[in-house]
Amino acid sequence: MPLFYPTLYRRRITDITLEDLNQLGIQGLLLDVDNTLSTHGSQVLDPAVEAWLTHMRNNGIRLTVVSNALPRRVAPFAGKIGLRYIAFSCKPSPVGFLRGVGRLGLKRKQCAAVGDQVFTDVLGANLCGIPCIQLEPIQLEKGKPTLALKRAVERWIRKRKKAIRIAQK
Length: 169
Description:
Blueprint: E1 8-10, H1 18-24, E2 28-31, H2 47-58, E3 62-66, H3 71-81, E4 85-86, H4 94-104, E5 111-115, H5 118-128, E6 132-135, H6 145-168
């Protein structure tokens, strides 16, 4: 089960603080798009997320987008926020994460993946050997039975981790 557990869990991307990153030794973030920076398929960026991105950049945190979405989805979004991107990254394969780490010019332990899905973001980061910050999805996807099933399993994993923490205390 450790492959399915993030290093850190936060509700929204704006809840990730410089203190969180400093405690983990993180200098760069590999950011997912859908349900992490914006709602699924949207090209709209919440002003609070935009302010958070600016705050991170101004404090020396390197940022790049690593997404499984196709370039036609990711390129316009990444352009709006002024970030380079890796589209069709094949998460949970480590390939996209490794390309992102290389793009940031950092070591793996200095980067963290940020995303909302256990079976792509968390698993992929753990397979790659980089920390992962899992977020709650901004908005649950409707009309997608496979994603609904994955979200149910993700909730079970999250509850299981809480149960393990309680048992270890």
